[in-house]
Design goal:
Elements (H helix, E strand, L loop, with lengths): L7 H21 L20 H12 L7 H14 L3 E5 L2 H14 L8 E5 L4 H9 L3 E5 L10 H7 L4 E7 L8 H11 L2 E5 L7 E2 L2 E2 L6 E5 L12 E5 L4 H9 L52 H32 L6 E2 L7 E2 L5 E5 L7 H10 L24 E3 L3 H9 E4 L7 H15 L3
Parallel strand pairs: 2-3, 2-4, 3-13, 4-5, 5-8
Antiparallel strand pairs: 1-9, 6-7, 6-11, 8-9, 10-12, 12-14
Helix pairs in contact: 1-2, 2-9, 3-9, 4-5, 4-8, 9-12
């Protein structure tokens, strides 16, 4: 007896159904929350069978490098933010590196130029400044926002200042009205590190779209995830080919997707028309290098996952805001002990976490409360590097400090955060609040 051979399409549908069943039976069900026994993570991935199916489809297509999924993601991501162009890369750290490097490669920055940036930061916000032979100028932060104090930013500008590298820490937007006025008045470039802040807005506009360049991270702790991954957005057309070249080894071929890689029969009309001094006539454009670049490309199944995550981003952001408010309503009672986070009046954060800073002379230490929370299976984290100038890696780095870094030092001593990511349900938040309250009522 012979039967009709299943089509590739029907095979895919059957595979999708199997993935959905596996997800429901083995992943979605999860473990029942047991207070005190189940770890309440500060972050974690939130996904379903749609991401799994999309990634499998991308793998089965047989092309792992930059291709149709990446281009589709870049288009939809830029459209979501209202930016002209987006470039997908393999991490938010790489996005920062490419953003700074592109300004050097395009001649907007020169070695020795000064870059204003807050002292409370993540290493890969500061590192590209150093790696590109620029001079960091560290500025103190505001305790409630963890962002650079705008008054101190203005005071820190010198005749050598050319760039502001500004993270929106923990999803809290900077005062972009004052920042953009400062960049205009001094003709400064601005890179917004929005790795913590995808979905945050200032005066209705998404962070990452105010400056020359904006960077984002899709690490698992952030507002959406590709497992790893990052992106750069810009409204400046001339920077796009520079960014693409630097991401792809520095080569001259900067088409969004080279058709040669997708169709062996397609002959790019520009591929063998490039003339460069010192090279043979009509050398292959794909092997002409115009910048000293990197290999910072994503892979296709990451982009496929990202397309599904992007659809869920608004609900993820709303869940973070809701969870933040639940914890804030509890912690308001203890403002004698803590400086609680606060955003500028025109800002609406897509909160990364719930941070607190111990006030001076409280009857307990950060070490004590963190040990209590961790001992009750509530994960905590420090606020990244704290005052980065005190980190061992930067002891021999030449930088300028604009004023004193008192608040940055205090954050290093007295700040920490707990999670509010969308994977936390009401029972998790109730437990965090209960454990916090148990500790604080002892004093």
């Amino acid at each position: 007896m012979t039967g009709k051979k299943p089509s590739a399409s029907s095979d895919r549908k059957a595979l999708h159904a199997q993935i959905a069943r596996y997800y429901r039976q083995h992943i979605s069900a999860g473990r029942k929350f047991q207070p005190g026994r189940t770890k309440v993570q500060y972050a974690g991935p939130v996904y379903d069978e749609k991401e799994l199916t999309a990634m499998v489809d991308a793998i089965l297509d047989g092309w792992f490098g930059v291709g149709k999924y990446t281009r589709r993601f870049e288009s939809r991501f830029s459209r979501f933010l209202g930016a002209r162009d987006a470039l997908l890369v393999n991490s938010g750290s790489s996005a920062n590196l490419l953003a700074v490097t592109s300004l050097v490669a395009s001649g907007r920055l020169r070695p020795g130029d000064e870059v204003l940036t807050p002292a409370v930061t993540f290493p890969t916000t500061l590192n590209p400044i150093i790696q590109c032979n620029l001079k960091p100028v560290l500025v103190d932060i505001e305790l409630e926002t963890f962002n650079a104090n705008p008054d101190l930013l203005e005071d820190a500008v010198s005749p050598h200042t050319r760039l502001i590298m500004l993270p929106h820490t923990l999803g809290i937007p900077n005062d972009m009205g004052r920042v953009t006025a400062l960049t205009r008045s001094h003709s400064l470039s601005l890179i917004e590190d929005s790795c913590d802040a995808l979905g945050s807005t200032y005066d209705g506009q998404y962070t990452g779209t105010f400056g020359t360049l904006g960077t984002f991270s899709f690490y698992v702790a952030h507002q959406m995830t590709l497992g790893e991954g990052g992106a750069i957005v810009t409204n400046e057309k001339d920077l796009v080919p520079v960014l693409r070249s630097l991401r792809d080894w520095g080569r001259a071929c900067v088409c969004p997707i080279c058709p040669v890689t997708r169709d062996p029969d397609f002959q790019c009309k520009q591929r063998f028309t490039v003339g460069a001094e010192g090279l043979p006539e009509e050398y292959d454009k794909r092997y002409v290098y115009q910048h000293i670049g990197y290999n910072l490309k994503p892979v296709e199944f990451q982009a496929a996952m990202g397309l599904e995550q992007l659809k869920k981003l608004p609900s993820f952001v709303e869940a973070r805001r809701r969870n933040f408010q639940k914890l804030y309503s509890v912690m308001e009672e203890y403002q004698d002990y803590f400086v609680l986070p606060k955003a500028p009046s025109q800002a609406e954060p897509a909160w990364f976490a719930f941070p607190v800073t111990l006030r001076d002379n409280v009857p307990f230490t950060r070490k004590q409360i963190v040990a209590w929370l961790e001992g009750h299976n509530v994960e905590t984290r420090m606020l990244f590097a704290g005052n980065v100038a005190r980190q061992p890696a930067y002891r021999d780095v030449t930088f300028r400090v604009a004023g004193e870094l008192r608040n940055s030092d205090k954050v290093m001593r007295d700040s920490f955060f707990v999670g509010i990511y969308p994977g936390l349900r009401q029972e998790h938040l109730d437990y965090i609040a209960e454990v916090m309250t148990q500790f604080l009522k002892r004093f």
